[in-house]
Design goal:
Chains A, B: It holds the Pfam family PhoU. Chains A, B: InterPro entries: PhoU, PhoU-like_sf, PhoU_dom. The structure is a homodimer of 220-residue chains. Chain A is mainly α and 220 residues long. Chain A contains seven helices and no strands. Chain A has one domain: Up-down Bundle (Methane Monooxygenase Hydroxylase, Chain G, domain 1). In chain A, helix 1 packs antiparallel against helix 2, helix 1 runs antiparallel to helix 4 and helix 4 packs antiparallel against helix 5. The interface between A and B is medium-sized, with 25 and 25 residues.
């Protein structure tokens, strides 16, 4: 029974890891579409989005099967419940990549980003993809030491996000309100994407130890 | 066994309903703080926020107890799992009310909102609170007909949100980029708050019928 549980739980975490991979790739493409004004790429992200929703439904089914057939208890039960919560996080990451692609499409053939903030988004995109890759890794290896290091990557994203506002608030900002609105929303999408990646790591810490990162650091 | 399940599930839905009530009240206060530049009220929302986090943890514990002690199956199992997902939605609504309060505090004693958009936020705030009240009601009565009507209230919020952008994009906008950035973020907070309220109603439809709203409407 416990072997079957272990096997199915590993399969669920693998499926979740694949989903994270997919939303990370979507964010990479959406960022490229945004930076290069590439309409085709934006369309690709948008039309691929349904696949994330399908995989979410499949992963939820897998988790229900696990609950129903293996009737896990204690820590195992918490791990399966985490699985449902992880599906929601990853789903949301996919929606945020979709939002970025939609902004790129809406403004095409105009470029969305003034030159002076393009570099920020290149870096935010790079960080977002890196965070997704890290989230995938800890989902699969269930290594909570590794998961704890993910918390810091989010700080870098928050710094970039803050700097972005400083640039827009500068008197020298000459791109008008419409560009500022786009940049504000886009900045928020990247920041939220990173936030969800960190929440994934938090849940892995909890799955692996039964403790939140704070409880764990307090005890050490 | 089933009686105990019913009783505990009703208690869980009641606890979730109370949480929705609390985040709705927080959004009402945050909106008032925003519109009136009321620092004290903003501070109150901010310092009350911990109570939402505490109640989330308690509701998750209740749901775990239910799973562990009653070992529900089939539809009952889905209802309990929904409970965990509902906690995340409500938690997020609380975070969004907190964000609104923080914007009000950050700009104090300056007013955040130019007069020409204040009316939009008054209405978005009113809608947000109404949506929260409706979400609370359907959580407690588990009436899926009622839950289905909630989907439309969200459209009104989306309309307001779109109009808000039109106002900012207008050549006549004379309040500069900083105000536009604030208004953009605030608009997004209200829109997301409404979105989560609708997601609550969707989950109630699923809890009560085992079908998504789309599946249900297709079948009818």
């Amino acid at each position: 029974m416990r072997d079957a549980y272990q096997e199915q739980m590993a399969a669920l975490n693998k499926a979740l890891g694949d989903m994270v991979d997919e939303v990370g790739a979507a964010m990479a493409q959406a960022t490229q579409a945004l930076l290069e004004g590439d309409l085709e790429l934006a369309e690709e992200v948008i039309s691929n989005h349904d696949s994330v929703a399908e995989k979410s439904a499949e992963a939820e089914d897998q988790a229900f099967q696990l609950l129903a057939l293996q009737a896990p208890v204690a820590g195992d039960l918490r791990s399966v419940v985490s699985g449902f919560q992880l599906v929601s996080e990853i789903d949301r990451m996919g929606a945020l990549a979709l939002h970025v692609a939609k902004v790129a499409r809406r403004r095409h053939p105009a470029k969305v980003l003034p030159d002076e903030v393009a570099g920020y988004f290149e870096e935010m995109g790079r960080l977002a993809v890196e965070l997704a890759q890290n989230a995938r890794r800890v989902l699969e290896n269930q290594d909570y030491h590794d998961a704890l290091t993910l918390m810091d990557d989010d700080d870098a994203m928050d710094d970039l996000h803050r700097h972005l506002f400083t640039v827009m608030m500068d008197r020298e900002w000459s791109h008008g309100v419409a560009a500022a609105v786009d940049v504000t929303l886009l900045g928020r999408y990247y920041e939220r994407f990173a936030d969800h990646a960190v929440l994934i790591a938090r849940r892995v810490v909890f799955q692996a130890t039964g403790k939140t990162p704070e409880q764990l650091l307090e005890a050490s």
